[in-house]
Amino acid sequence: xxxxxxxxxxxxxxxxxxxxxxxxxxxxxxxxxxxxxxxxxxxxxxxxxxxxxxxxxxxxxxxxxxxxxxxxxxxxxxxxxxxxxxxxxxxxxxxxxxxxxxxxxxxxxxxxxxxxxxxxxxxxxxxxxxxxxxxxxxxxxxxxxxxxxxxxxxxxxxxxxxxxxxxx
Length: 168
Known about the structure:
Structural class: mainly alpha
Number of helices: 5
Radius of gyration: 21 Å
Strand content: under 5%
Distance between the termini: 20 Å
Order of helices and strands: EEHHHHH
Strand order of the largest sheet: 1-2
Helix content: over 70%
Largest sheet: 2 strands, antiparallel
Low-confidence stretches: 1-6, 10-19
Shape: globular
Mean pLDDT: 84
């Protein structure tokens, strides 16, 4: 645990700064896990119904059902990874997962919005899905920004602490 003198002459504990970053990341990873576990299981179990909710047309070909189930397995895997990473929200692996989730959410927004605008597909869950993934993208970006800012603050405090101690 690192400490630094503050302007009022007291000691500020760095773990307080970290707590402000860890809590939102843990909440994001937990929320993402719940959402993606549910979506992944639904795509694995009943892919045609899920696709009908999203785009308003069922999957009928065996090849389409197979590919949708593969996608469901991938989304389920993201959910499991988020669930496991929430216990160590400051690790490099968790930051990597936040980055991957950001790309996934951006891609999902683009793909679903394109389906609605360019192809005229319109399932009852299409635009709510676009909105959900847009919000999740923004949340991932904010958590990554805070985490990077926190890393910079920790680094600066370590340098300051080492400078105050002087050479050994």
